[in-house]
Amino acid sequence: MLALVLASVRTRLWQYAGVLLVSFMSAGLLTLLASVLDSVHRADPGHGAERAAQSLLGLVGGTSGFAAMLLVANTLVLVAQQRRVEIGTLRVVGATASQIRAHIVGEAAVVALLGGTAGGAVGSVALGPALRWLIGNGVLPAGPQAAFSPLGFAVGVLSTVVIAVPDCRPGSRRI
Fold this sequence. Notes:
The protein is mostly helical. Helices cover 81% and strands 0% of the residues. It contains eight helices and no strands. It has helices at 2-11, 17-43, 48-82, 84-92, 97-125, 127-136, 150-167, 169-172. Helix 2 runs antiparallel to helix 3, helix 2 packs across helix 5 and helix 3 (48-82) packs parallel to helix 7. The protein is elongated, with a radius of gyration of 19 Å. The mean pLDDT is 85.
């Protein structure tokens, strides 16, 4: 099944361009935000700087996550509508609705994982300049050091999958 999903994504990548772009951008931003929080926590755990960073970055992260959810959901519904003839053909040759849904969910997960991984890498690289800007403009006190944050990377990548997989339900519900 995985080989079929990967082949399908490879041939239809242009249809998933919107999901790929939104996954890339949201993973980059969420990786950056979680990495900043992780850096602040390591430098000054439990103090005012960490609480201020949590409030500010939590608001930005929540807003961008919600926007990503809406954009990904709309794009996945459009992809499912564009594939109605193909889905109908699969149903005629014996594919069950649950098999087709699983295929669509698999495609969404693969595309979100690709975009999330690329975005997570960019977000991790952007940590140094972002911390310098936040410290230089007085948003954060001096102290946090820029270092790769596995937690930040995982938050960025996994959040895109968590957003994309449930969002493909509306498009696959009519199968």
